[in-house]
Design goal:
The protein is α+β, with helices and mostly antiparallel strands. It has helices at residues 26-32, 47-56, 79-99, 130-141, 168-174, 212-221, 227-242, and strands at 16-18, 40-42, 64-67, 72-75, 104-105, 110-113, 118-121, 124-127, 155-159, 179-183, 188-193, 199-202. The protein has a domain at 78-245: Alpha-Beta Complex (tt1808, chain A). Helices cover 33% and strands 19% of the residues. Helix 3 packs across helix 6 and helix 3 packs across helix 7. The longest helix has 21 residues, at 79-99.
Length: 248
């Protein structure tokens, strides 16, 4: 993807604030999110409102809903959003595979956690910690569809072509997601959760030997119209450049 296609001026939209009340119908949600990447916020709602709203949206509706304990944010991701998200996801998966780093992923899972009154749909979700990998494997073996059977992810991917108007970072912190890779329309930042419960930008990932500039190169600058060729080039680069960084 050429960096010229990621200008934030073309994708940032003003936020629309909807009035609280009854849960919007699916038709209403489509109208509210008709402009891709435009964030619609419903202020001052409770957990029951959020849960009913999320459960009313069918699979494949292309509507994301997040809840920070006070406000709900709704958005329909654009094609650019999904393109960057998929490239970032492929980067994580192919790099982990080439380096033989144990990894599992659950894509755009909605992490609905009533015990903390928070819920969020990450663009991509990954697991690296051994205990979590074992729990995920056990739940997948049972073909469980219950989100309560799965731990919170270790790494999440965030494509924010328009800035969030709720405390989205606070949701990730409440979920104790150790690392978030963020693309804000111009750059990729690796945020790491600190002991005091806040995120700080770091130079490199804690789960694989790669830094943010290298991620940005492969996701934003390298030619990617031929996905198979992009993947082969990436694999070769990982073997040549990243593999020697692993501890022996």
């Amino acid at each position: 993807m050429s960096s010229t296609t990621t200008s934030s001026s073309a994708v940032h939209s003003p936020t629309c604030v909807a009035a609280p009340g009854s849960v919007p119908s699916l038709e209403d949600l489509y109208q509210m999110t008709s402009e891709p990447d435009k964030r619609v916020v419903i202020r001052s709602v409770d957990w029951a409102f959020y849960e009913q709203l999320v459960d009313s949206i069918p699979e494949g509706a292309n509507i994301q809903v997040d809840y920070d304990g006070k406000d709900v944010e709704i958005m329909s991701p654009s094609a650019l959003h999904d393109g960057v998200k998929k490239l970032l996801g492929h980067f994580v998966e192919l790099t982990a595979e080439e380096l033989e780093i144990p990894c599992a992923w659950l894509g755009q899972t909605t992490w609905k956690r009533p015990e903390i009154h928070r819920g969020l749909e990450a663009d991509e979700s990954y697991f690296f910690v051994a205990e979590k990998l074992a729990t995920v494997a056990e739940a997948m073996t049972r073909r469980s569809a219950e989100i309560a059977d799965y731990p919170n992810p270790d790494l999440a991917i965030e494509v924010d072509l328009s800035p969030s108007r709720i405390d989205r970072t606070g949701i990730y912190a409440a979920l104790r997601v150790a690392e978030v890779w963020r693309f804000d329309g111009e750059q990729i930042v690796i945020d790491r959760l600190q002991t005091e419960g806040v995120y700080q930008p770091v130079a490199a990932s804690g789960f694989m030997p790669v830094n943010s500039q290298e991620i940005a190169r492969w996701v934003l600058k390298e030619e990617c119209h031929n996905g198979s060729l992009w993947a082969r080039r990436l694999r070769a680069w990982v073997r040549a450049e990243l593999a020697p960084r692993l501890p022996r």
